[in-house]
Amino acid sequence: MVFSSSQNASLAVVSGIFYLTVRSYVTSRRKPLPPGPRGLPLVGNVFDVPKTQEWLAFMEMARKYDSDVISLNLAGDTVIVLNSLSAVDALLEDKSAIYSDRPPFPMLNGLVGFHWHVAFMRYGPRWKGAWCTQHRKVLMQQFQPSAVLLHRPVELEATRVLLQRFLDSPAKYEKHFRHMAGMIILSTAYGIDVLPEDDPHIDISEKALHAMACTGNRGSFLVDSLPFLKYVPEFFPGAGFKKQAREWFKVVDAMPHVPYDFVKKARAAGTAKSSIASRVLEEIEEKSGDDQQQQHQEVILRNVLSACYGAGADTTVSSLGTFILAMTMYPEVQKKAQAAIDAVVGSARLPDFQDDIPYVDAVLREVLRWRPVTPLSLPHAVTEDDVYKGYHIPVGTVVVANAWAILHDEATYGPRTDEFIPERWLTEDGKINTEMRDASPAFGFGRRICPGRDMAQWSVWISVASILATFDISKSVDEKGVPIEPSGEYTSGLLCYPIPHQCNILPRSEAARALIQSAVP
Ligand code: HEM
């Protein structure tokens, strides 16, 4: 049977009406979405969400609607924000089988080329044969608590180099943290010894991470809400994002390849140092006879190693920046921590991983809790329709865990959560209170929880203990001798950093200076 064009049009209209009627019937019989602000046509709640510190606005909405779970429509995307530990436990942890996907990132993954980064991969068997799970498996093996012990010598060496750099140019402390984080990750992952200045491997990765910071917040670019825009030609008015994406793509694509090729060449020349890359490559070559399988495993290894820099460097730098800020603002905490270190370590050596100093453990937990690096964690997505507390959570919903709200909840972490109080983590006899929920919400949830969390905590712990053992951090004073208060400001985005502030970082004594100078040949 052949239809005329007018019959075709009528058929389309009738089908459209039928579809809308069925959809509206189905929707009306469904349970409601969690409460949230009423949106505008088309854009929904886009204007209800501020461009910075969204986590505070979400906490306010939770109070207003008297619900720890709220929903928003962001230009067509349903977004559900979980503002409590109980909601996160019930959904992202207990139902992790269906709450571990990521939303699509058309700009970041599609145009800028971060599709190789496990943090942004879709989750589940539907997605390229459980590609994400295969990546996570390698990460879990290499960063499980027992494997992390292998990385300690590098963490110790990098910390001691950091102390030396603090002696030379304390005002550049953020730059030194960046160098230290790069040194740890490039050495453990690839066996690369970084240069003291302008290291080319750090340089590529930092440029790629800048692209990630600019595009990681879904919604920063219109193409995230209207994915068809990715097909718009570059010369089109308003398509500047495509030119920018093409520029970023070059460095994002180079990031996994350049250091990996370095290891391959070093192995061929017999000069490769021990690293995750060299150990896993050896295993791959021993086990697999099949070229295709070998190639497949190598691609996963290459992606995973690069993702470690992508996910581990900036996060460590941010936590250490928070530590310097807290020590500047809370001198009495610094004094207590130094006394606790002196009592265990003395003054004749630098701290080591074996030192048991609960007050420093408490400072570390407080750093992670007080100013979480990713206040909204990374967005999850749900792969099946679900119901929570009588509310409908439709398949495809973007699920955001408000880590900030959770880590500032006084019901979990005790009073005055806006203040830096390490004592909240301690029992009366000065031990870590193991009954209390730890600071793990800072590392995400369920099956997407940060695989590098053990390594990250040890890197930050040894840096914190070593800095406090050897340096005093204090407020700078202005020309009239008045102390300069740090603004306490942070950048706002997927990842937040404290904006470096002016402060004094001076060796505690001449003996401390000599100890640092003798620590690295
Ligand atoms: C203080 C330092 C760190 C913090 C605060 C941190 C925090 C996080 C958070 C919040 C997530 C998202 C979890 C979720 O989606 O629920 C994450 C994911 C991830 N982190 Fe970390 N991280 C840190 C250090 C590291 C380090 C050192 C590494 C690697 C050596 C690493 C590797 C990763 C990877 C690969 C992912 C993606 C996991 C996935 O999507 O399945 N992180 N991290």
Automatic annotation (TrEMBL):
InterPro entries: Cyt_P450 (IPR001128), Cyt_P450_CS (IPR017972), Cyt_P450_E_grp-I (IPR002401), Cyt_P450_sf (IPR036396), Cytochrome_P450_fung (IPR050364). One of its GO terms (molecular function) is heme binding. Heme binds at C450. Keywords: Heme, Iron, Metal-binding, Monooxygenase, Oxidoreductase. Pathway: Secondary metabolite biosynthesis. Its cofactor is heme. PANTHER family: P450, PUTATIVE (EUROFUNG)-RELATED, P450, PUTATIVE (EUROFUNG)-RELATED-RELATED. Belongs to the cytochrome P450 family. This is Cytochrome P450.
